[in-house]
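so im writing up the methods section and need the Type II toxin-antitoxin system HicB family antitoxin record in one place, dumping it here so i stop losing it
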Amino acid sequence: MFYPAYVHSDHDGSASGFFPDVPGCYFAGDTLDLAFADAKSALDAHFELLSEDNQAIPRPQAVSLHLAQASDTLNGGQWLLVDINMDKFDGRAERINITLPHRLLNRIDSMVQQHPGYGSRSAFLAAAARNELLKAG
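--- predicted struct ---
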């Protein structure tokens, strides 16, 4: 899942930023590249704490929505989309038995093979379910 982050570079080359959808989650680095790397670590750590406390993990909104809401206050920086694997924050994995049409299963397996970021058929199905749940609100 992609979370938008706002990043501002300073004159000395350092950079810092925040996630508008995740209150209290900030990141920084001595360089822009280090700030980008810290963004993922900060978001991961923040979500880990939220899940340990059984708190809801905020859902990301589109960058265009943030641009429309804060065009006056967010200028001079740039937006970054940080990809976070949400599997580890959903709790313990549970084995289930499902039935799918053969052609659909072949298409899923082909997608997983072409996009190794999914890791497995189960991870693909979990990502698809999360996307549909996000759309439903």
